[in-house]
Design brief:
By secondary structure, the chain is an alpha/beta fold. 31% of the residues lie in helices and 21% in strands. The chain is built from 7 helices and 10 strands. The strands form 2 sheets. Strands 1, 4, 5, 6, 7, 8, 9 and 10 form an 8-stranded mixed sheet that branches. Strands 2-3 form a two-stranded antiparallel sheet. Helix 2 runs antiparallel to helix 4.
């Protein structure tokens, strides 16, 4: 798929994997590090891919794309989104968590098709909750991210709901990904074992 306009992707790999007891991004996923696998899934849809992490030096030899550091460490995914939007050269930017190994091309195509000139974000909805760690953000969302970080508010649901946001409903998502596998996170060792099986 060729995007209608240039898109930059940022893979969020800044988490501490506390529930996993190891660095998820470095775990072997069918012969390749999980982080590298997720990078490969988004590359066909974008003009450039970056990894964002507060431990940037851990990943420079793992992926063949640039790795950038959080500008506000220890601020969760919002810090990673802020870092990406601070340096992007494109208006729209795709953000994905590094522990989503089942991202489907149809799912990503649907998100990209929802880009709206009236919005600053395109965010999937799973039941009643938004999924801000697999979403598109316009670079003009940077000002809100900066303001929230300065206030000590790192809540991604608040961030998305404060933006002019195009919500992609669960029903729309199921049309291209019936079991919503694209939204699966491998948060724990149990998740990993089930996925590996």
């Amino acid at each position: 798929m060729i995007p209608k306009e240039p898109i930059t992707a940022f893979i969020l790999a800044g988490g501490r994997s506390r529930r996993f007891f190891a660095d998820k991004a470095l775990q072997d996923w069918h012969g390749t590090p999980l982080l590298a696998h997720v990078v490969s899934l988004v590359q066909p849809f974008v003009c450039e891919v970056f990894v964002v992490s507060q431990r940037a030096s851990d990943y420079t030899n793992v992926v063949d794309v640039p790795v950038i550091a959080d500008l506000h460490p220890d601020c969760g995914p919002l810090g990673g989104i802020h870092a990406g939007l601070s340096g992007t050269r494109t208006a729209w930017n795709l953000f994905a968590a590094c522990d989503m190994p089942y991202l489907k091309s149809e799912f990503l195509s649907l998100l990209l098709d929802q880009i709206d000139a009236q919005a600053l974000a395109v965010v999937p909805q799973l039941d009643e909750r938004l999924v801000p760690t697999l979403a598109l953000y316009h670079r003009n969302a940077l000002a809100l991210a900066e303001a929230m970080l300065q206030q000590g508010n790192f809540h991604l649901q608040h961030f998305c709901r404060a933006l002019p946001c195009k919500v992609v409903s669960t029903e729309q998502l199921r049309q291209v990904d019936p079991h919503l596998q694209s939204l699966t996170n491998l948060n724990t060792l149990e998740d990993w074992k089930r996925a590996s099986a």
